[in-house]
Structures are given as structure tokens and as C-alpha cells.
């Protein structure tokens, strides 16, 4: 319906490798040409959380250390974070360090104590909650994008969502 915010969560398998994605679309109201500013701000908060989080990826740092540092910085910046990132590969949730879980934002025993290694791929999965006064409710912009970690840092394999997909309404 016009004015709706849509959330998509999907994955693909190709050459036995798995992906995991979450993105958002907005259904334009009549005479609208873009998503409302308040939704764009919510997406910007989630993108900022991605930046904070991936900047904390360092060789040998554990998933729990990255999670703690990222949450602390995000909260300091006024972002309400939830981080639940996992490795990808031959399984949707592959072997390697776990960086938070939706129900374990204080760290993940065992899997979160595993260190980061170069040349590994992750599904950067997280959300930032933003209160929308116009809707009188809090929404979560849930993003999940594939990324690769090496000596140069973290890079998204096919970019990341920084704008809503816009759907024209009749």
C-alpha cells in the first residue's frame, strides 16, 4: 500500500556458496518521488552502524571484542544497535567467528571468542532502531550485506543499500 516500508530477507546459493541479504523498499504515495526524510534518516542510522561495525574488524580481534567496541561507539553516537553477523561460505551460517546474536548482544560464548582472520567472508547483519514520531513507533532498519575481510579492511562484495528501492503506486 502507498506509504508502506517493506523489508526483504533472502539468500541465494550459487556454486555451492551461500548468500544472505536483507534490504528495504518504500511504496511511494501519490505525488511522492522519494521516501520521506524520517525514513531516510533511519536508513542513514543503519548505514552508520555498518560503518562503525566494519571499522572495528581487526586481524586477531574476537567477535565479542568487535561487538562490544561497536555497540559502545554506536550507543555513544545515539544509535540503538543490534548486531548479529555471521560468516558465510558453504552454509548460510558458516564456520568462523560469530559477532553477536539477536538475543545475545553482550557477547556469544565460544563462537564469539574465535578471532578474525584475513580472507574471510561475512554476512554483515545488523539493525538500528529509530523512533519515527510521524508513525508514533520505533522501526528497525534491518540490513544484511555480504562482505569480505582482508588486509585492506572490509569491503562489500556488491555494494550496500544506502537508498530505498522505490515502488510506484497506482
From TrEMBL:
<keyword id="KW-0378">Hydrolase</keyword>
<keyword id="KW-0031">Aminopeptidase</keyword>
<dbReference type="InterPro" id="IPR036005">
    <property type="entry name" value="Creatinase/aminopeptidase-like"/>
</dbReference>
<keyword id="KW-0645">Protease</keyword>
<dbReference type="Pfam" id="PF00557">
    <property type="entry name" value="Peptidase_M24"/>
</dbReference>
<protein>
    <submittedName>
        <fullName>Xaa-Pro aminopeptidase family protein</fullName>
    </submittedName>
</protein>
<feature type="domain" description="Peptidase M24">
    <location>
        <begin position="2"/>
        <end position="95"/>
    </location>
</feature>
<dbReference type="GO" id="GO:0004177">
    <property type="term" value="F:aminopeptidase activity"/>
</dbReference>
<dbReference type="InterPro" id="IPR000994">
    <property type="entry name" value="Pept_M24"/>
</dbReference>
